[in-house]
Design goal:
The chain has 16 helices and 18 strands. With 567 residues, the protein is an alpha+beta fold. Among the domains are: 69-192, 2-Layer Sandwich (Beta-Lactamase), CATH 3.30.450.20; 445-566, Histidine kinase-like ATPase, C-terminal domain (Heat Shock Protein 90, 2-Layer Sandwich). One of its GO terms (cellular component) is membrane. Residues 467-565 form the Histidine kinase domain.
Length: 567
């Protein structure tokens, strides 16, 4: 796969992931926000219904408190005397029934639960034991209205109907005992119209009021759904606002308990009814994501082409360079990283051309030098053979001192014409000793020397002619210029996988300025500078000569050879 296709695929993949993630997050963020708002609306709806019920009940409670204290009503309830009500009490009954259309009947009972007065149509409570239970509660709590759940009564014609009943105990103010009961019946249907309709905020929101027996007092939905049992069980367990799953549908429930009546108000709605517009939003998000992906795909192709076109030129130029053709340059006006890369390529090609030219010239120079060296070897060989002849003639004549000088000179000539660039420290020491012997014959007692090198150091390999230039500089510029002469010490030791070499003399010393000239190659000691450069070229710039010197005291030169050179 080409780089362009890879970049296009990468861009499209990233954009797809980001787009889907953003779309997913947007959709579910909107869903969560809508759900929270709807839950708040449901809670407000339930709370409004509860407030409405409480306000209506308080107003009715004021009426029941007033009527229960009416002497005429007390007489009717206690003595069971039927008669016409006085104007004031009758007006109260009329006003109450007109204000609250939910009231279907008002009547009084004596202690035996016999009807002593009935304001509206005659009705009969079917379950006497249930009625007795409500009256007993009213007897125990004479200051409160006792609200029932759904009760079944028979009207004229013995037709059954369900009502919600309020029971209030009527007491004798003198003896403070219960003499009867005031009972008000409410029509659940009228009650529902009064308390629920027009309060539900959703078209399909199911709002209902449940009594203590889990019977539905009223609802805005004529069809009793099966899921209400699940919602009631969850509410009874202590949950007030919750979600549940029923018949492959998610439902949201908000409930509130009314402490006066003992009823529970529920508001239930399905997710499908909460999010009717969310489906449209989901489709819009999908369309936007698809459109964004198409545009991004086109833009990624254009971007990939823009980025890979100069890279393609660079790749073609590199293929040409691989064939050894370096007369190539890429023209670019880009100021970005790709432009910088192309300019670096052009610079690299120019440097390679210069390097090739330099290496070629160095090879030619090296070949010429090798040829000259081969030619020059003729004279050293001839001189070495001549010196050997002279040495034997001196031995025959008994000139041993001169013979030693000639022999040392021959060793020097022999060592110099050897072709190895790397030698053991032992070989280098032998060469240096030959040189020192010649110098000692010249200087006699003015030159003393010592060599302290352990056996493990003698096998290390070092560059050829490393020590001789330093020894020569120490004798020529340090000891010889001193009238009384001096001593020279060559020592070595192995430490931390490195070989340390040290040449120390007690000559006239070297000034700081001369040390800098030696290290820079500007002084008279060209040999020491060459040693410095050869060591750094062979082992790295961190190696080289360390020169310490004091005027009229002496000079100490130290060098370090890494372990690799011992192989």
């Amino acid at each position: 796969m080409s780089l362009r296709n890879k970049m296009s695929l990468m861009f499209v993949s990233i954009i797809c992931i980001v787009s889907i993630a953003i779309g997913y997050a947007s959709y579910y963020s909107a869903q969560r926000l809508i759900l929270e708002n709807k839950r708040d609306d449901m809670a407000n709806t339930v709370n409004l219904i509860d407030i409405n019920i409480t306000e209506q009940i308080r107003t009715i409670n004021e009426f029941t408190n007033y009527t229960s204290e009416n002497l005429q009503l007390q007489k009717i309830a206690g003595e069971g005397i039927q008669g016409e009500l006085d104007g004031e009490l009758l007006t109260w009954f009329q006003n109450l029934s007109q204000s609250y259309k939910a009231i279907s009947n008002i009547y009084t009972l004596n202690q035996d639960l016999n009807v002593t007065y009935q304001y509206k149509t005659e009705s009969m409570f079917e379950d006497t034991e249930q009625l007795r239970g409500y009256c007993d509660k009213a007897t125990k709590k004479t200051d409160r209205d006792i609200w029932s759940g759904l009760c079944s009564v028979r009207t004229e014609g013995y037709k059954k109907k369900s009502v919600v009943m309020l029971t209030k105990a009527i007491t004798n103010p003198k003896q403070n005992n219960v003499i009867g009961f005031l009972v008000i019946e409410f029509d659940p249907d009228s009650f529902a119209k009064l308390l629920i309709n027009n309060l539900s905020t959703f078209q399909h929101q199911h709002t209902l009021i449940i009594d203590k027996n889990h019977d539905t007092i009223c609802t805005n939905n004529s069809v009793q759904a099966d899921y209400t049992e699940e919602a009631i069980q969850r509410f009874d367990s202590g949950e007030r606002q919750f979600d549940f799953h029923w018949a492959n549908t998610n439902y949201h429930v908000c409930g509130q308990y009314n402490g006066i009546t003992g009823w529970t108000i529920y508001s239930i709605i399905s997710s499908a009814d909460i999010f009717p517009k969310l489906t449209i939003l989901r489709k819009q998000i999908i369309y936007i994501v698809i459109l964004f992906l198409l545009v991004s795909f086109i833009m990624s192709i254009i971007l990939a082409y823009t980025l890979t076109k100069p890279m393609k030129k660079l790749s073609e130029a590199m293929k040409v360079a691989e064939k050894g053709e370096f007369n190539i340059q890429i023209v670019t006006r880009r100021k970005d990283e790709i432009g910088s890369l192309i300019r670096s390529f052009n610079y690299m090609i120019n440097e390679i051309k210069l390097l090739i030219q330099k290496v070629y010239e160095e090879k030619i120079t090296q070949k010429n030098a090798e040829l000259g060296a081969l030619q020059a070897q003729i004279n050293p060989h001839f001189l070495y053979n001549t010196l050997d002849t002279i040495n034997w003639m001196l031995i025959e004549r008994g000139e041993d001192d001169i013979s030693d000088i000639v022999l040392s000179l021959g060793d020097l000539m022999k060592y110099s014409i050897q072709g190895d660039n790397m030698v053991t420290l032992q070989d280098e020491i032998d060469y240096v000793e030959s040189y020192i012997r010649i110098q000692k014959c010249r200087m006699e007692d003015r030159l003393n020397y010592s060599i302290d090198i352990p056996q493990e150091a003698r096998i290390w390999r070092i560059p050829k002619l490393t020590l001789q230039p330093i020894v020569e500089n120490a004798i020529t510029h340090g000891i010889e210029t001193k009238p009384e002469g001096g001593s020279l010490k060559i020592s070595a030791w192995v430490c931390d996988d490195k070989l340390s070499l040290q040449i120390k003399d007690d000559g006239v010393g070297i000034s700081e300025g001369d040390i800098q000239k030696i290290q820079s190659g500007q002084g008279n000691s060209i040999g020491m500078h060459n040693v410095q450069k050869r060591i750094q070229l062979h082992y790295g710039s961190e190696y080289g000569l360390k020169i310490r010197s004091k005027k009229d005291i002496g000079t100490e030169i130290t060098m370090w050879i890494p372990k690799e050179s011992s192989e």
